[in-house]
Q: What sequence folds into this?
């Protein structure tokens, strides 16, 4: 029979040192030095109680991610990014709205409530820089969580990240749904984990810049890319191995090298929070088609101030 003498040895060490020290210092030694020694010897990684668990990040993602419908068809996901009184704003991708059959959109929140949505900003042209759009809806009776925007440049290569969104169920696409009824079909919510694999020196023409290993599926476009604290660092919009094969260009017009193109094609991609903030700056400057209501709501997401030298806006 084998015996582990490590605990007895450590206790003896504490007993010897405690003879000449006060009670307060003994308590400090016992709870700090001893735990440090055990951690180093046994290679124990103590949890950081200040960081949300994966479960809590998943809960955040569930509450801030919405479904977007057009003409009773699910077309993609969105992220609740700001609130002003009873008015909420959703950030999503332009290609999500372009996939709708008309200009009428409906938001379905996590509690299966449906709201008529108004388009605030929307790039209808595929060749415009950023694949982003903003919708709004009014909810006088129910309160919804808004995502917390991460500080700019607060993520790096190898960071753990989480993505969320709703997956299109092809078997349901032909079914009739009632957008005002609780009997409407809900698509599967997907929450995946992974790591940041690549951060391009400059974004692609459509705004994508953060490459990650998480799985993205059709329908998840417009959902959030979250860090370990549950903060928004990007908007999903491009899954790995797309059906189409085309060369990608950076926002300065130069083409990605063959090596970089392979990385782009083999990973999922998000538009960074820095570009999202620039997009809102453009909305404020009325450089894109916008609604007059935008002025009162952009301040809610501007707490992560974008430096002036980052406003190198793509035209």
A:
């Amino acid at each position: 029979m084998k015996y582990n003498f490590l605990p007895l040895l450590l206790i003896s060490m504490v007993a010897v040192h405690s003879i000449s020290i006060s009670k307060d210092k003994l308590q400090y030694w016992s709870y700090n030095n001893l735990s440090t020694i055990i951690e180093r010897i046994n290679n124990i990684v103590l949890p950081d109680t200040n960081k949300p668990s994966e479960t809590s990040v998943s809960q955040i993602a569930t509450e801030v991610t919405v479904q977007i419908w057009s003409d009773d068809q699910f077309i993609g996901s969105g992220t609740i990014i700001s609130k002003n009184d009873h008015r909420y704003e959703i950030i999503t991708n332009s290609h999500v709205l372009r996939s709708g059959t008309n200009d009428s959109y409906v938001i379905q929140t996590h509690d299966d409530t449906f709201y008529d949505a108004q388009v605030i900003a929307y790039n209808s042209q595929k060749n415009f820089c950023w694949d982003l759009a903003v919708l709004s809806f009014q909810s006088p009776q129910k309160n919804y969580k808004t995502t917390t925007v991460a500080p700019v440049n607060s993520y790096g290569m190898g960071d753990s990240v989480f993505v969320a969104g709703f997956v299109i169920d092809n078997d349901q696409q032909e079914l009739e749904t009632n957008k005002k009824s609780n009997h409407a079909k809900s698509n599967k919510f997907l929450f995946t984990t992974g790591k940041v694999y690549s951060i391009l020196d400059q974004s692609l023409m459509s705004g994508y810049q953060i490459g990650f290993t998480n799985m993205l599926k059709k329908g998840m476009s417009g959902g959030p890319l979250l860090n370990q604290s549950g903060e928004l660092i990007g908007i999903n919009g491009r899954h790995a191995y797309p059906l189409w094969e085309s060369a990608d260009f950076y926002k300065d017009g130069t083409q990605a090298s063959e090596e970089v193109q392979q990385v782009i094609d083999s990973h999922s991609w998000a538009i960074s929070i820095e570009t999202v903030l620039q997009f809102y700056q453009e909305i404020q400057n009325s450089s894109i088609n916008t609604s007059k209501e935008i002025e009162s709501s952009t301040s809610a997401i501007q707490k992560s101030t974008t430096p002036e030298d980052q406003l190198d806006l793509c035209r």
